[in-house]
Amino acid sequence: MSSTVGQVIKCKAAVAWEAGKPLVIEEVEVAPPQAMEVRVKILFTSLCHTDVYFWEAKGQTPVFPRILGHEAAGIVESVGEGVTDLQPGDHVLPVFTGECKECDHCKSEESNMCSLLRIDPDRGVMIGDGKARFSINGKPIYHFLGTSTFSEYTVVHVGCLAKINPLAPLETVCVLSCGISTGFGATVNVAKPKKGSSVAVFGLGAVGLAAAEGARVSGASRIIGVDLNSDRFEQAKKFGVTEFVNPKDYDRPVQEVIAEMTGGGVDRSVECTGNINAMISAFECVHDGWGVAVLVGVPHKDDVFKTSPVNFLCERTLKGTFYGNYKPRSDIPGVVEKYMNKEMELEKFITHEVPFSEINKAFDLMLRGEGLRCLIRMEH
């Protein structure tokens, strides 16, 4: 047993004190895990656009001071009462949504939207007792998405931790805890392209390229990347993208351009921008009779879009997905195995790396739109 079990741990964390201001590395106190909670030593974390979104807090409820971060990998330090399927030393990926295994959603083969632990960006405390496990001088520092991985140690509900193969390199598989699983799963679990089919991917950031990677491993013969930034096209080739369309190069809707390129439309499309115009294009660019479009990107809360019902009557399908339809505890360990068996590639998603003390550089890179994932290496 480690000497820290049952004790408060003092460690470094990057605290967001207010919206849009650089994070500050502070010494925080991390309380021991309570019932159904686990304390995790974070070894690697990476920055996802969702962290930036809630750090800027322009369209969201501001919750500060807060420890952001949700894409990460670590090792269990200690477990709270009632935790049976994890023990100290286990390798885990924390996930922003969960799997309680008891609710109707968890019992359904079709859903991964756990009633108890599904994403709640406004909650800054633990679900068990409504309190934060982080503090500085006795004052609470709030949690983010139940994970708060921008800290050397964090406390997470057991239902939000995927126990993975201890041989998997944590510095690589950490990206599966959020964005890469979201995009990859949207293609392989929801769009399900057949071998030799055509797939259009809207938005070529990390999630879109993960969707493209899903199409590549599914054996799609044409993968059409759609993005307003032509600089992204070169990099996208590594992820199987075969053709590129920049909607700005045309004076007609991009769905018409894609339909022309493909003799009536693509077999599958995956929308990874959250822009409603891209959503309409993604739906309207699929082939009648069998085309399926999948929405991944998160829109503004007041957004609505219009399309003709005839598009559905002509046997096009529109679907949505959350976290690639993966159940965190049941399914993510298997995605790690896919990587271990060389059935998918992950290294190419990690384009930058910084030590934890320079975490603000990762924010700068993302704000400038440079690279895909910036790995943040903890300096224990």
From TrEMBL:
What catalytic activity is recorded?
a primary alcohol + NAD(+) = an aldehyde + NADH + H(+); a secondary alcohol + NAD(+) = a ketone + NADH + H(+)
Where are the bilayer-spanning segments?
Answer: none
> Chief location of this protein?
cytoplasm
Looking up PROSITE patterns in the UniProt record yields:
ADH_ZINC
Which InterPro entries does this one have? ADH-like_C (IPR013149), ADH-like_N (IPR013154), ADH_Zn_CS (IPR002328), GroES-like_sf (IPR011032), NAD(P)-bd_dom_sf (IPR036291)
| One of the record's GO cellular component terms | cytosol
Q: What subcellular compartments does it reside in? A: Cytoplasm
Residue ranges of every copy of the Alcohol dehydrogenase-like N-terminal domain listed in the record:
36-164
- Required co-factor? Zn(2+)
The record's listing under CDD domains reads:
alcohol_DH_plants (cd08301)
Domain (Alcohol dehydrogenase-like C-terminal) ranges: 206-337
Which SUPFAM superfamilies does the annotation name?
Answer: GroES-like (SSF50129), NAD(P)-binding Rossmann-fold domains (SSF51735)
Indicate the secretion signal residues.
none
Q: Which domain of life is it from?
A: Eukaryota
Record keywords: Cytoplasm included? yes
UniProt entry keywords in alphabetical sequence = Cytoplasm, Metal-binding, NAD, Oxidoreductase, Zinc
List its EC numbers: 1.1.1.1
Tell me one GO biological process term. formaldehyde catabolic process
Which GO molecular function entries does the Swiss-Prot or TrEMBL record give?
Answer: alcohol dehydrogenase (NAD+) activity; S-(hydroxymethyl)glutathione dehydrogenase [NAD(P)+] activity; zinc ion binding
Protein family according to the UniProt entry: Belongs to the zinc-containing alcohol dehydrogenase family.
What binding partners and quaternary form does the record give? Answer: Homodimer.
Provide the protein name. Alcohol dehydrogenase 1
